């Protein structure tokens, strides 16, 4: 009689275990990213390594292609969280938003663009840009502002010393350069390395190395969302932190192998090259904390570019509580 009884107990145990598992609520998060780039490798590590799932989160990722479109998605409740340049929160704040957008976790801490020349240049000097046609990024965006900041740092007035082109849509800048527009262009990876491999251009400098640390890309949400979903946001931030530590502790090759499903059309050797380039210049933040020094550097760069509508205190648009809780 013992065997039937034991079997019955096992069945009940399995039933209650399954019931308990099914009762765990999986929370869905709609995440909008400004572009899909290897620059955001830690995010894709969090997705591919199931770090979000470990926290009970189902993250639905969509690419919104541009800071204005990404912010529109967030403001119109088309997304819960956005990954975009933190300068956008200052623009929204300056417009008097009743429900401000708050930065709560940093992903990248340097600019992610590179200066690409049409012709190979040995011993590149920034003064070589003077008098050239420069294909820059969209006015008011972080790439453009950092680009101008670096140029001025090297004694180049973007408006006077260059034939500066800024009227081409972000998604078409690389195509414009490939078709013959400009002698120099400011490009993100992996496009810069792909152009170099194909002989369409040559990387001669890094804007990230030149500009120093800045909260270039951060996760942000409406203040009301952070207030009403504190546990969810903390889980999200924890998953990102896991990914940041994983990226810090692994080689470019290992990272490339993990994120490859996100970039099926990009050769593995290019992925590895790009990731190594970003790792070596410290582009990937090693924790999600957006500190005050970085925030002030961001505003200095915006001010230098003439794009800072108002100077905002760190604590007004940055919430470090979720990131700081992880280190306790």
Question: Which key phrases capture this entry?
Answer:
328 residues, alpha/beta, D-Maltodextrin-Binding Protein, domain 2, five-stranded mixed beta sheet, 16 helices, 10 strands, NitT/TauT family transport system substrate-binding protein, signal
Task: Characterise this structure.
The longest helix has 22 residues, at 2-23. The chain is built from 16 helices and ten strands. The model is unreliable at 5-23 (pLDDT under 50). The N and C termini lie far apart (53 Å). Helix 12 crosses helix 13 (268-280). The chain has two domains: 26-110 and 214-325, D-Maltodextrin-Binding Protein, domain 2 (3-Layer(aba) Sandwich); 113-211, Periplasmic binding protein-like II (D-Maltodextrin-Binding Protein, domain 2, 3-Layer(aba) Sandwich), CATH 3.40.190.10. The strands form two sheets. Strands 2-1-3-10-4 form a five-stranded mixed beta sheet, sandwiched between helices. A five-stranded mixed beta sheet has the order 7-6-8-5-9. The chain is globular and about 60 Å long. It is an alpha/beta fold and 328 residues long. 46% of the residues lie in helices and 16% in strands. Strand 6 (133-135), helix 6 and strand 7 form a beta-alpha-beta unit.
- How much helical structure, as a percent, in the residues? 40-55%
User: What spatial form do the alpha-carbon principal axes imply?
Assistant: globular
Count of helix runs: 16
Spatial strand order of the main sheet: 2-1-3-10-4
Question: How many domains make up the coordinates?
Answer: 2
SSE arrangement, N to C: HEHHEHEHEEEHEHEHEHEHHHHHHH
What is the CATH level 1 assignment of the largest domain? Alpha Beta
Which class do the helix and strand fractions yield? alpha/beta
Oligomer category: single chain
| Strand segment tally | 10
State the CATH superfamily name of the largest domain.
Periplasmic binding protein-like II
Residue fraction in strands: 15-25%
- State Rg: 22 Å
Under the CATH scheme, the architecture of the largest domain is 3-Layer(aba) Sandwich
Signal peptide: 1-20
Protein name: NitT/TauT family transport system substrate-binding protein
Subcellular location: Periplasm
Keywords: Signal
